[in-house]
Design a protein that fits this description.
This protein has 249 residues and is an alpha/beta fold. Helix content is 37%, strand content 24%. The chain is built from eight helices and nine strands. The strands form two sheets. The protein has a six-stranded mixed beta sheet with strand order 4-3-6-7-8-9. Strands 1-2-5 form a three-stranded parallel beta sheet. Strand 6 (201-209) and strand 7 form a beta hairpin.
Amino acid sequence: MNNSILRLKKQTFQYPGTLLLIIVIAVIACSSGKSMNIRNNSKYLMLEKAYEMKSFQMYESFFEQWHRESNPITDDELSKEPEYLKDIYSVMNLFYNSKDKLQSFTTKEIDRHISENQYVILQNRLNYFITLRKGERITGKIDNFRPDVKYRNKKYLYLNNEYEAILKNYYKIRGTDASRADRESVFNYFIKSDRPFIYPNICDINVYYNTNPEKGLAIVSYTFGFVSNWTSMFKKRDGKWILIETQPM
């Protein structure tokens, strides 16, 4: 085993119970983002220094700062949005927070990975497709998607453009084969995740309304790992959304 990894393990064993799940959206087909010059960014430099010094405390400081900056959309902000966006947030909050998830392979695996990690990163962009009651369609994308997630009391982080660029640069392969393997191994030890898996990566949400404004149907499409595609279906009954089905596509 690489000597730096041995040093890292000896150091981190002094601080048990902190495992990080990193979601690198840029490498998954369902999501995309603009690159930005981040090399002089103080947060990126903190992450690089944490790697160079094999410092658990510095890694922890990086993620704690990110967590402090990650605030869900407020009720006041949401009140100014159209009804279909309010419904999107209602559905996605239920998707992330439901404690009675339907028993299937994907929900069990997602739950297991969330349970094993202290930090969970959520994507910052969400595509949506809306079919209104008269047949009109609205398509768009939420670029600053901030659901209110409290599931299992983990620390949820929003992958905005800044942090996406930081992680992309951190993961960028450079140097010798040995240094690349060392960088990957060190970070993977902290995140307990096989990059670029996402748990889960939301591809889009479709919302359908019928003639009754208190009723509707929503389908969330997402990926699990490289090839697993899943959907979760929600119905709006008497003004309240409920999860009714989860299945592979």
